[in-house]
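Internal ticket #5521
Category: modeling
Description: The requester needs a full-assembly model to guide mutagenesis choices. All entity lines are attached below as received. Residue total reported by intake: 455.
Assigned to: D.W.
Attached entities:
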Amino acid sequence: MVEKVADFLAEGEADYEYMMVESEHSAMAAALGVSMMGARAFTATSSQGLMYMAEMLNYTSGGRHPVVMVNANRALAIPWNIYGDHSDAMAMRDCGWIMLFAESGQEALDMVIQAYKIAEDKDVMLPVMVNVDGFTLTHTYDVVDIPEQELVDAYLPSFDTANKMCLEHPKTLCHSVGPDYYTEAKIAQQEAFEVAKAKIVACDEEFEAMFGRGYGGLIEEYCCDDAEYALVAMGGTVGTVRDVVDELRAAGEKVGLIKIRGFRPFPEEYFQSVKSKFKAMGVIDRSLCFGVGGTVFGEVKSALYGSEMGLKGFVLGLGGRDISVDMIKEMFAELKECPAGEYSDQPIFVGRRW
Amino acid sequence: MNKPVWLKDYVMPTTKEEVPFGASNEAGFLVFKNAGFRSMKPSINTDVCIKCMMCWVYCPEGCIDKTGETLKIDYDYCKGCGICAKECPKQCISMVKEDEA
């Protein structure tokens, strides 16, 4: 991805400074430094690279510097595996970054533009990780509309912040704080995430008004109005579930799709609002929270506290294994068999060999 | 000495608006005595001291003050490591308990 960014510069299609460093840890440290000087910073990473920059992710979020990064979601070693799943992002889910998940190439592009507007909002000031499924989105061709520069500039004007270094007002950067004030710094971050919930929706609505493409903010419901069974998905898998919902709907089945677009902040209010809407809800996880189960399922279950719906946590698509139409149909079939009030306490592996 | 001074009249913030945003603040902003965990502190016998400045060279915190007639120790910075006492060729620096002398 950053190689393509370099191509744009080399071919004179864009105007920015390009910095080469020796590692992902240094890449995030450099992006943080750039942001500390008040400039916009972008980088991209994936899998082991995200793990390697882990330390700097918390520096960036704790310092409240609005860096934007694309993470190509891929599995973590070991066994060594380069293919797609959500293990990398989920391992970093508490690093203080806003985390958005794109469904398509077009949404990934639009999400990066939106990400700067969200990140740089003076009441938010949090870095944003735009998650794009490795291989299924990053290594496939997709027809994408690249918006006009003037329109993007109108949507995203240049920004300024007092949270930067300048020679007129020297600062201590990344200061230390003892036990007496650290808690309050973390409370401030938590409050910013609450503010971000509304800002993510507002930035998406404004984007739709200007560019004609909107994505629902934190959540998109698809065919959920009269649905009895709903599947929750994130990332590229959403597109396949969408097709299966269309197919099953045509056959008269009352099924729906819930797309989580904003994973951090987590749309808890949405799930509270639908806790008695469906007969059963299933969650598709492409990562494992070892010793617990599907990572997203745990969060959905927590947000649905007090719900009487049947709940099932499915784990599939690990290490790049295809998520097929048949697997999605199988999950909907399982939901229909799930009695009210029952929930899976163990992850249900779909498409396993044995 | 040419280093930030402990702002003894600083009032600690009581609202979030008073706290520096993020993790950056105005330079030279020292709101605590930077020596709270010391149990032993160095004491110079200035009658024996020949001002050879070995303690000044070795002190890792730069808290030997040479601006006056005799050498003084900045106890707002001194961590009580004892390096000055170890290095003093005249052995005129002794480590004493924090609550004594």
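Resolution: model delivered.
Comment from assignee: The helical segments of chain B are 54-58, 83-87.
Ticket closed.
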